[in-house]
From TrEMBL:
Residues of the Aconitase A/isopropylmalate dehydratase small subunit swivel domain: 713-839
Entry's Gene Ontology molecular function annotations: 4 iron, 4 sulfur cluster binding; aconitate hydratase activity; metal ion binding
The organism of origin for this protein: Thermogemmata fonticola
CDD domains (UniProt xref): AcnA_IRP, AcnA_IRP_Swivel
Similarity comment: family membership: Belongs to the aconitase/IPM isomerase family.
EC number annotated for this UniProt entry: 4.2.1.3
Keywords in alphabetical order: 4Fe-4S, Iron, Iron-sulfur, Lyase, Metal-binding
Protein name: Aconitate hydratase
Gene giving rise to this polypeptide: acnA
Essential cofactor(s): [4Fe-4S] cluster
Chain positions covered by the region annotation Disordered: 392-433
Amino acid sequence: MPNSFQTQTTLSVGSRQYTIHSLPLLEKVFPRIRRLPFSLKILLENLLRNENGLAVRAEDIEALANWEASAEPTREISFMPARVLMQDFTGVPCVVDLAAMRDAMRALGGDPSRINPLVPVELVIDHSVQVDKFGTADAFRQNVELEYERNRERYLFLRWGQQAFRNFAVVPPGTGICHQVNLEFLARGVFVDPQGQAYFDTLVGTDSHTTMINGLGVLGWGVGGIEAEAAMLGQPVAMLIPQVVGFRLSGRLPEGATATDLVLTVTQMLRKKGVVGKFVEFFGPGVSQLSLADRATIANMAPEYGATCGLFPIDAETLRYLRQTGRPAETVALVEAYARAQGVFHDASSPPADYSDVLELDLATVEPSLAGPSRPQDRVRLREVPQSFREALPKLTASSGGKSDPKALSVLWNESGDPTASDTVNGPAPARTQPVGEAVHQIRHGSVVIAAITSCTNTSNPSVMLGAGLLAQKAVARGLKVPPWVKTSLAPGSQVVTEYLRAAGVLPALEQLRFHLVGYGCTTCIGNSGPLPEEVSREINDRRLVVAAVLSGNRNFEGRVHPEVRANYLASPPLVVAYALAGRIDIDWEREPVGTDSQGQPVYLKDLWPSHEEIQAAIDRCVREESFRRIYASVYEGDEHWRSLQVSGGELYLWDASSTYIAKPPYFEGMQLTPPPLADIHGARVLALLGDSITTDHISPAGSIKKDSPAGQYLIRRGVEPKDFNSYGARRGHHEVMMRGTFANIRLKNLLVPGVEGGVTRHFPDGTVQSIYDAAMTYQKEGVPLIVIAGKEYGSGSSRDWAAKGTALLGVRAVIAESFERIHRSNLVGMGVVPLQFLPGQSAASLGITGEETFDIAGLVAGAEHNFSGEHRQLRVTARKPEGQQITFSVLCRIDTPQEVLYYRHGGILPYVLRQLLAGQ
């Protein structure tokens, strides 16, 4: 390594010495480093350590050291993460691709064993458990057994990968959510390589909420699976030096406000500000008032507020958390010493940083809130939820078919908007075991049918989890029960959570309210909410009811939580329990009781809400270092189900042609040692004409597989019965299933087929209506390239690689949108699909584009020759209408870096990496 700035030195910690690349030594050359944001100092150390004159040059280091806070990002750098984190939905296709790369390597005359992760890769199986069983003491055991029954092929494949690949570890099912396991166990704080070099723990992950680890001062963010594959194969993550927005916190949270309320407030503020593609960094006196778990809750939601990451600095609270979670004393000492040596340890003496922009929030102003009914940034004050739901109801009713039971309101409003006493539900119906029985007829618009303590946003946080338990304890003491139509669930982020709930004595109360443990994993938040009771489902569909889900997760996009639930609200775990007790979303908590106690007295939310002092006392008493040490001591062993999976060894995977879960993907078929020449696009047709806020949920196959869908019909032809379809997520390792489910979301609105929801389009020039998959296959037979046209924020949401993989396999060559979300734009390039952006003020509507045109896109060849920079960044599009008129306009090519140009020239990241490995043998 060149070490151009002579920054290599040693650091002594205890009896050990470590080699480091010192930022203070570099600061002598570039004094402005002293005021760099913490996140950029971490990136700068990464450049120093990886300087090689090729991917990282001295001028890259100089550019970052002289960072201009207000400058628009133009300079590309190469980031080399220390490790890669995966969950199983996105991890399985990554391992499938690695297995296919080994086959391709052998076919091209190379050594297959060279295909291995070059950095540590940790995969946590957490996305496959589903809430089939709930409300009983046996729910967890039954759900685990169903999980293994459904996913045996996938788990056998991962077991093969664990023994076939070096540097690859698998955390078995039933352990916890990847982000919480990362926070509590996997994160190192500081890495040490075999040569004794110490450096910052950094990572990329195949889940957008990888950002949760930023709460620990560890820099990391979500990427698509294909970009993660490149990173674990030693390829740098190409990125532009970002702008960094500072978020100053002051004060402390008031009584009644939770970390969830805070994060919903932060999310709303940052979404309004606009931080897509930027780093966010939290600072100010209020940071010291937040526990590490509170910080992680805020950092987790970076994808919801649109930032690449939301970093908190390393400080005394970081060290306290590392000790509390059982990290060895020498690890904690190294983290502190290294952070201080690099000038990134935050305390009263820390110099102020320069930021591109600054927002401020007084924690004392945070109010209890929810977010909904369909976007995480749509925060609603708790007291305004009834009015908010009332205003949203007409649109939600219309989307359910427009005809619903006229008596379906659980609260009728008078002219002033107040609930009328005559129809207010003052107390829950008597609790009954399933089936729900006659109580189902009490369901109205706004009835809560799902109440889920779920996902990683809050289940990492003892304050809100114990708060929920204490509220449940008080409710049980007053004789309150949950109405029988509410599907309740408790899905903690790790086994430690149930330990401290049990130690605090609140788990029995949660269970009495039917919040029994259903699994350790990402459940309701990703659509693994399982079926509603049959009577509830029938009532909703027969009466066209707009019912609600309340969940403690981070995503509530339309159609995501459950296909029959149209109003979905994010809330803190205590509020999840409260809404479960109320049984409806439109309760006015200030004026209406939750219910009546055993003495006939009204019980209000304020009577049940635990104080900060009560919660903190429970945390101090019950969250124990010993629990973390014991539970994580055997984290890789798994239960008896995992240990019983027997696989045969071998460096090449033995593909099973009969499998409908794992199949060899076609990405390397016919691949040559040199890439084919690029060509402009001629005569393309529009596969889908879409509006704003099209998420990866709309694009990528997710949730249940419908019997009459192209994927369902394919599985039936392969002999799979509908009851065994499982979910799209579980079948991400099989491209034939996944490409049939691309753009198949039940709520997708393709403007080529107005008034219809779902994965349909029109095939041109005949105009026949077909499924998107069938139309794409017809176009492929005809040799017609395809494009997708969309509005703003295309590809927002989870970092689902299949949103790009499926798009490419359907034959889409380009996507033209008004704006792109960061990860999906990168994923499209990684699959050889060109992201093109309308110029400011232009859109499909403003240009008069209907989607019936044919399209030529010129300038791709010339643009690639000049890295799509300067005048070559704009390409020319010509749209020809059936009547012969032409519309010509310019678009911005969003292949943003020279590294991405290389990926595009090779047809994607995977062919590029394989050719690089072959060339380097």
